[in-house]
Request: fold
Amino acid sequence: MKYPCLFTLVFIWFNLNGHAEEISQVYPGKLLNKDLISTESDPVIDLKFKGTENGFLAFKFRHLDRVTIKEIPIFEKLVLVRIKGANNEPGEQRLVPDEFIHGDIIVREEIIDNGPVASEDFMYLGVTTRTDLKGILLDDREKILSLFEDLQHQSSTLQFANKRLGIQELTLTRAQIYQELGIFYESRINSREENLSIGGVLDQATYAPGDTAKLSVSARNEGDEGVVYRVLARSVSRWEWLDGKMFYLGDINAGEKKLFSRFFPIPDDTAEGDYYLRIGGNEYSGAKPQHRMIFKIRK
Reply:
């Protein structure tokens, strides 16, 4: 903050002892107030990736108001008084009643949270999904998660379009997904494959063409205390609609079991029969547990 320049020899008068006095300096004292000049409001939508909710990637929308405030600080006016000609004396500091010093304009910004973007429809990647009352949008059709099935794919810039609120952009990285899901692949203690078990459960015994199947893959760490497994799994099948789904199980401590679910839309033209897939696990230290699954399609 810049203050007005100090100056000398503004007034001369005589004190009670008959000595001529002069004001050698004028400077600001205590801050008394700030006069408001203007405020400018800029409503924005805040969009953040929030990990998972109910087994789906979750995104949080909130109404924010970015307010720019301009103010002028008001200070006491202080003067330094010396006996005329006594420039080497320290002088006496005095407050000038009813006079003030204005400082330079201060510009500051405040962010006001105006609550969730509730019950709004957003279109992204060809689908439309509505936020809940907390402003949470769930990727319940796994459109975003599917972008990261290719392990070489590291980031995507997503656009969420709303007719009233416009387009909101968010860049999502694989590292962010791993962080929010608690998947940490730094090296700790090597594990042994015989202590890692992997399995899968379907939500129905049989399905019809056009149904959507839910497959929950689990991994259990039966190792000793301190042994940590870090597991990613993937579906492998000759049928395209069953192949290539990732299951982000992440870090599993000794005695712990973790579960991750994915959805498999069954094409309308799928014939009756048994459809096989393999869940292939990949653990940080090299273990590769496997589990075989059968989808039974009946009309």
About this structure: The helical segments are 143-147, 174-180. The first strand starts at residue 12 and ends at 14.
